[in-house]
Each structure stands twice: as C-alpha cells, then as structure tokens.
Amino acid sequence: MLGVIEHRTGHSGVALIDGRPHTAVHTTTDESESFAEVWRVAGPKESGSHGGIAWARTADYLFGVARVPEGDRYADGTAAVYTGIFDLIGELGHLRLARTWNYVSGINTLNADGMEVYRDFCVGRAEALDARGVEPAGMPAATGIGTHGGGIACYFLAARAGERVNLENPAVLTAHRYPRQYGPRPPIFARATWLAPPGSDDGRLYVSATAGIRGHETVHHGDVARQCDVALENIAQVISAENLRRHGLRRGYTLADVDHLKVYVRHREDVRAVRRICAERFSREATVAVLHTDIARTDLLVEIEGVVA
Fold first, then answer.
1. CA distance 96 to 63
2. Binding site residues, as ranges?
3. pLDDT of 47 higher than 90
C-alpha cells in the first residue's frame, strides 16, 4: 500500500503507519458511508516525511499527505503545504504531479478577514505557484471539496516519468481564467489528467471533481437532478474521443468506463436521488461512494470525480 485515506465521520492527523501515509477526512455525517481509499502499487517502496508531508514512493510513483491545521485563516498554511509539495517532488525526482485532492473544513464559511474559506485556500495555493514558478497550466486534475472539520487535508500523486497530459473541457472555462467574482486568486487545476508509464499505453485518466457548470457559471440553481446531469455531461465530454484527440491522445471513453467514483452531495435529502442517477449512468461494476459534505460554491449541490483505467 502506497497510501491510505479514510473518509468517515471524523478526522485524524497525518501519520506514517507501517511506512504508508495516512489521514482521515471528515467527509460524511453517516458512518454507513465511511470507507478507506487505498492506493496500491507493485514493487518495493520507501517512505519518509518532509516539512509535515508524509510520503511513500516506488521507483515510478510518489504519494504524499499533508494537513493545514484548523484556524481562522488558511492562505499562509496552504502556501506552505504546496511549496513543500513542489520542493518534495523536485527533491525526489517525481516531477509529474498527476492528481491533487484538497479537503477543506468549513469551505463556505468566512475566515477572520471576511473572505470565504475556499477563496482563502485558493489564494494560498496560487501564492505557492508564484513562489516556485509553476505555471497554472502545469497543475493537474484536482478536487477542492468541503469537510465537517479538521482544517485542510491535502494529498497528491506524482510520477517520475511517462506521459502526463492535462485536459480541459471546451464547455467549461479553464479554471485559472475564472473572472474575479470567484475570488482574488482563481482556482488552479485541469479538468482531467492522463498519466501513462514510460513506453506504455496502459494509463489512467484522473477526472477532477466535476459540477453543474457551463462556461464559468453554475446552472440549474436549486435542482440537484439537473445539476447532476450537467456534471455527468461534463465528465462525458472531457473523456470523449473528440476531446482527447484535441489534446493529442488517440483514445476515447464514455461514462461506462469511469470507476472509483466519489460523489459529493451538499444536502442529505438529495443523496437518494443522486445515488439513483449515478446508478443509471455508470457501469454496474463501478465502485461509487456517495458522501454528504459541502461544495466549493454555495449554489452547487453535487460534484463527481472518478478514474478511467
């Protein structure tokens, strides 16, 4: 095991347990929805810590976990975590950052300065990119979602070599080009990232947490079913053969190919409807976890992420 992330009704700190990075994030209010997200690899691994980041790696892949403690401001702590990530992947030689996850406590609440916590987080992440000279287009697929406590948990996957291609969706504005109405610094991530080992076509496509957005605007306010449909349409478009060809990849997928899904639902009363829609649209063999937690925009009711292998 390269790393373990627990999703449950509580949180824990970052630790190395038997040589694997571990943390728990408070992403649901119902213990029956709890599960462990386990990252497995073949071959020997080594592990360690770097500036509060617990990490493990093989010759090919690096997995790391860090946390910003709960507080009344998050930009400085987020900047420290992300500069630490950039420094670590450089030091260990796993320069192809392929996927990041950011679980943000009280994501829609206000910090001590009256700024929404998610926007506060985005400021810190952008400052880290500035400090290390990382171009926004170089940032991979990501999740930025709420939790019910515990500050901010960040974890990431990086590769030493191989093909990495960040994908955008022509129906949705590139995140780092969002207008200023969404905060002083925009969110910075790709809509999906393709990662394949050197000399192999046997890769994976990591799909960012995807919502009911067209252009840069939320659609179907207050209607979870229609927002869910648009989120699914956005996923289908970003993984389609047409879009992958646009990014130089000769392959294509449909929703039936998406697995390892995490579905985030803002309101407990909407969980059943979202489960039904996902059951109808994804493969019966797909693993689907539905979690009750807040979402980066107050008008978004559902977000969906997954992996195509």
1. 12
2. 118, 125, 178, 191
3. yes
Q: Taking Cα atoms as reference points, which of 190, 65, 204 lies closest to residue 140?
A: 190
Tell me the chain's radius of gyration from C-alpha atoms: 18
Sheet holding 163-167, edge to edge: 163-167, 192-196, 204-210, 302-308, 258-265, 288-292
Query: Is-catalytic flag, 303?
Result: yes
Average pLDDT of the chain to the nearest whole number:
97
Stated as kind and residue range, the H or E segment containing 44 is none
User: What is d(CA 242, CA 92) in angstroms, rounded to the nearest whole number?
Assistant: 36
Annotated binding site for substrate: which residue ranges? 118, 125, 178, 191
CB 207, CB 235: distance < 8 Å: yes
pLDDT at 194 over 90: yes
Tokens of 285: 């063999």
Of 6, 127, 168, 303, the catalytic one is 303
Which residues are registered as beta bridge partners of 195?
Answer: 164, 204
CATH number belonging to domain 3-308: 3.30.1330.40
Percent of the chain with pLDDT over 70: 100
Tell me if 255 sits within 8 A of 205, measured CB to CB: no
Q: What tens digit of pLDDT does each residue of 137-172 get?
A: 999 999 999 999 999 999 999 999 999 999 999 999
